[in-house]
Amino acid sequence: MFLLILIGTMAISFWASSKVKSSYAKYSRYANSSGMTGAQAAAAILQNAGIRDVQIAAQRGELTDHYDPMRKRLLLSENNFYGRSLAAVGIAAHEAGHALQHASAYAPLHLRMASVGITNVASQLVTWLPMLFMFTGFLNLVGALWIIAIGWGIIMAFNLVTLPVEFDASARAKKLLLNLGIVSVGAEEEGVSKMLGAAALTYVAAFLTSLAYFLCYLLPLLGGRRD
Description:
The chain is mostly helical. The chain has helices at 2-27, 38-48, 78-82, 86-103, 107-114, 116-136, 141-179, 187-222, and strands at 55-59, 66-68, 73-77. The longest helix is centred in the last third of the chain and has 39 residues, at 141-179.
């Protein structure tokens, strides 16, 4: 059963990652009609919302774009910072959506921020505890399984909270890109929507993966199996 879950979750993650990369590559070839770069689109969205304390910066790498709420920095990969494609403005607008969430005290975002620390601890536990148990046996099997199950439960809860954060940021992005005239109604709107929809699949895959491992460890314990 564990092997089936491992293969299944790896397949889902690979499919989601491939979907994102292919969608990004496709819409990176289409320029947006406004001629704005990703950085300019993000700046326009922040200015429209009256947000002036968020820094927009470029960084190396592909699809390394993210919003850092602790430092109030919106980081875009160089292709998206300088690029004028539908992909560039779509991703920039999505990250700007997170800045808008932060400014408006969007509850799921703040819940995710508050749970980062414990989620990092849980990730370390589920990674190293199985090997530590195998080589040292310092815990009995049932105790080890409970700790691992709780760890995966925390990760699953974090990934569950992440879903509305990401979907809401994408919804804000699509609406603002149209309202500010950065992309046009029709083909451009559809292209941004498809690309952001593909990106959302990675978060769904992460949730499904953590849910599968959580149930894999928990159900045998609840069923009374000890072997």
